[in-house]
Each structure stands twice: as structure tokens, then as C-alpha cells.
């Protein structure tokens, strides 16, 4: 898988920090401040390790499903459709990160039903007192409906490989890590950086550029 794809996934995770904090802020607060005291760093890391593990697992699953399209030449049109869909999603993600379009957020509605089933399980784990509990809570947190997550999952589906799909989602998860870990003393600085219009526009255009580049390759431009 091209390194640019991994870099794009990481950039989506990092540049979407404002969205991540908005979506996950309540959960981060609930996990960080329990019984009136701040949770230790080890538990914070365990929460996010569980969350990223869920992203990686989901990427492996959809990549495995997508690999079916690569088993036979008769499924070549499906391969092409998945490739084109992934490039379009990259473009839409880039426009969202640049603050120019919010179409990807429609995808969040799709995961609502799953989260309503998992949310009670998440609540039972609170208050978290141990690392295994923190890992379990983080793993459930990873299935919170998120348009950014679902958009990168489309690229994982088009990768046609469980390993590549997992790698894409791992890169995305690592990109979200700084913002969610830094909701404490560094939150203000990172939030200002992520909200800077120039930073958002530049990051969004880079991500969208990957999508346009992929479409150009598909149409044979630049070969």
C-alpha cells in the first residue's frame, strides 16, 4: 500500500481533531475525571489503546471483505468501483477538514443503532479502576459513530487486504491520539492549532489532493 495513503489517514485523524474532541469530549471527560479526580496517565493511554485497537480491528474486517473483490478478474469492475469510491471519500474528507463541506457527517447516522446497543455496556464499566477495565472501555469507545472513522473505513475496504485495511485505520487512530490525549493541559494549544483557518485549509487540501491524484492515475493522467 502506498505510504501516501497511510500519511493521508494519519493527517485525517490529526486534522479532524476539533471534530474528534467535539464527538468524544463527553466520553473523554467522563473517563478523565471520575470521583472528582483526574485519572492517571496509564489509564488514559489504556483508553486510547483500546479505541485504536477497535479502529484497527474494523479496518482489518472491512479490508478482508474488500479482498473478495480481488479474488477473480471477473470482479474487476467491483475493484474499480471501490477504488473510485475511496478517492471520492478522500476528496470529501479533505473538503470537510478545510471547512468547505460537511457531507461526510451524514455517515454518522449509520452507526447510531450499533452505539445504542454498546452504550449501556460502556456505562457498566464506569468508574474505571484498572487497566483491563480501561482497555475494555476504550474498545467500546472505538465504535462511537463518527463520519471521519467511516470515511477512512471506505478506503480500508478498497485496500483489498485485511493487513492494509488494518494499517490504514491504525494510522488514522494514531493521528487522533494527540488531540484526545491532550484535552488536559495541552488542549488549548492543540485546539487553537487545529482551528487555525490556514492549518485546516492546508491539511484539507493535502488530503483532497491525494484523492484527486488517485483519480488522475485512474484516468491515466500523468502516466
Automatic annotation (TrEMBL):
<keyword id="KW-1133">Transmembrane helix</keyword>
<dbReference type="Pfam" id="PF13386">
    <property type="entry name" value="DsbD_2"/>
</dbReference>
<feature type="transmembrane region" description="Helical">
    <location>
        <begin position="52"/>
        <end position="72"/>
    </location>
</feature>
<feature type="transmembrane region" description="Helical">
    <location>
        <begin position="134"/>
        <end position="159"/>
    </location>
</feature>
<feature type="transmembrane region" description="Helical">
    <location>
        <begin position="199"/>
        <end position="221"/>
    </location>
</feature>
<protein>
    <recommendedName>
        <fullName>Urease accessory protein UreH-like transmembrane domain-containing protein</fullName>
    </recommendedName>
</protein>
<feature type="transmembrane region" description="Helical">
    <location>
        <begin position="165"/>
        <end position="187"/>
    </location>
</feature>
<keyword id="KW-0812">Transmembrane</keyword>
<feature type="transmembrane region" description="Helical">
    <location>
        <begin position="6"/>
        <end position="31"/>
    </location>
</feature>
<feature type="transmembrane region" description="Helical">
    <location>
        <begin position="84"/>
        <end position="107"/>
    </location>
</feature>
<keyword id="KW-0472">Membrane</keyword>
<feature type="domain" description="Urease accessory protein UreH-like transmembrane">
    <location>
        <begin position="8"/>
        <end position="212"/>
    </location>
</feature>
<dbReference type="InterPro" id="IPR039447">
    <property type="entry name" value="UreH-like_TM_dom"/>
</dbReference>
Amino acid at each position: 500500500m502506498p505510504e501516501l495513503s497511510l500519511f493521508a489517514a494519519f493527517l485525517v485523524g490529526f486534522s479532524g481533531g476539533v471534530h474528534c474532541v467535539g464527538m468524544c469530549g463527553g466520553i473523554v471527560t467522563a473517563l478523565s475525571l471520575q470521583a472528582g479526580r483526574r485519572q492517571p496517565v496509564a489509564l488514559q493511554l489504556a483508553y486510547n489503546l483500546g479505541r485504536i485497537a477497535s479502529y484497527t480491528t474494523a479496518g482489518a474486517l472491512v479490508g478482508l471483505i474488500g479482498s473478495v473483490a480481488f479474488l477473480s478478474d471477473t470482479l474487476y469492475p467491483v475493484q474499480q468501483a471501490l477504488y473510485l469510491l475511496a478517492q471520492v471519500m478522500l476528496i470529501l474528507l479533505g473538503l470537510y477538514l478545510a471547512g468547505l463541506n460537511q457531507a461526510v457527517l451524514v455517515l454518522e447516522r449509520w452507526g447510531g443503532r450499533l452505539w445504542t446497543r454498546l452504550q449501556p455496556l460502556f456505562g457498566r464499566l464506569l468508574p474505571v479502576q484498572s487497566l483491563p477495565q480501561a482497555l475494555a472501555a476504550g474498545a467500546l469507545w472505538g465504535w462511537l459513530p463518527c463520519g471521519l472513522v467511516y470515511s477512512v473505513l471506505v478506503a480500508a475496504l478498497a485496500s483489498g487486504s485485511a493487513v492494509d485495511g488494518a494499517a490504514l485505520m491504525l494510522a488514522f487512530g494514531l493521528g487522533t491520539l494527540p488531540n484526545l490525549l491532550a484535552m488536559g493541559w495541552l488542549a488549548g494549544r492543540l485546539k487553537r492549532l487545529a482551528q487555525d483557518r490556514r492549518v485546516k485549509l492546508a491539511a484539507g487540501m493535502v488530503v483532497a489532493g491525494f484523492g484527486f491524484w488517485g483519480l488522475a492515475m485512474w484516468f491515466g493522467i500523468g502516466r
